[in-house]
Amino acid sequence: MAQTLVSIRDLSVRYRSRDEAAYALDQVSFDIERGQVFALVGESGSGKTTIGMSIINLLPDEADILGGEVWFGDQNVLDLDERSLREIRGRRVTMIFQDPVAGLNPVISVGDQVGEMLTNHLNWRKKEAREAAIEILAGVGLADPKRVAESYPFQLSGGMCQRVMIGIATALKPDLIVADEPTAALDVTVQAQILHQLDTLRREQGTTILLITHDFGVVSQIADEVGVMYAGHLVETGTVRDVLSAPLHPYTHGLLAARPRLDSVGQELYALPGTTPDLDKPADHCPFIPRCRKAVQQCRDVRPPQLTPVPGQSSRRVACYNPLWQG
Length: 327
What we know:
The protein is an alpha/beta fold and about 325 residues long.
């Protein structure tokens, strides 16, 4: 029987500056089961990374949590003090950031950065941690791990830096990895290797993964379930097979239609009309209305309820008054 590891309930987050505010998340709710790869997809600015940062309570100072809960096991991480969070971060939950080079310290050797996880959380001696770091680097598929351990990040390729980040993230065998665009800016060969590495962690160690990405191709290769984000709202969830083969929300359909296809060479690429809405205030109607070909008057009068179960499909949920199965 599936066991829930992460449960997000009605999470709302606002970013503020001196002159304006942006409502990044508006009452987002979903669960991630233990041992699952759950993918979040959507355009830039839809709130995907904000969800990932909320799970480890690592939002910047200019972020305000307006409401909601983020449960990791039996703990609401939004209520924990810094000492309790330190026991979770790195040890039970880790994050692979989008830019692997920027995520590493340029003036500290790779071996010391990997070993730091062991000295900080397990109180290992520095020499022991450095020896273990070499084994960790070998475990993520890096050739000549001793040389890599002695190197600095700027001496490594982007793919190698990403493997180092995975090594750091998995050094303590965490329960959950938040992977924020782990294959961004990597060529397809290295991308496949990184995805294989993450899938191996899930299969061999039972690691749960929250995958944040723009790429449905990546989702189809590794994820079990997918959630589609739009303008701070979670508009559709379901198994990868169901969502990719029969999208219900018009936005999901538009994203999938915009993918380049090998069988459409020479044809003009489809593009979703319009742009994402301003996030300066919470929407009181469906935020996708200006770009939607299926909008009805009800969409303009009342915002759709959060993720309503789909009749006859226990794994599907959609936030739409007029989903695609109705024609």
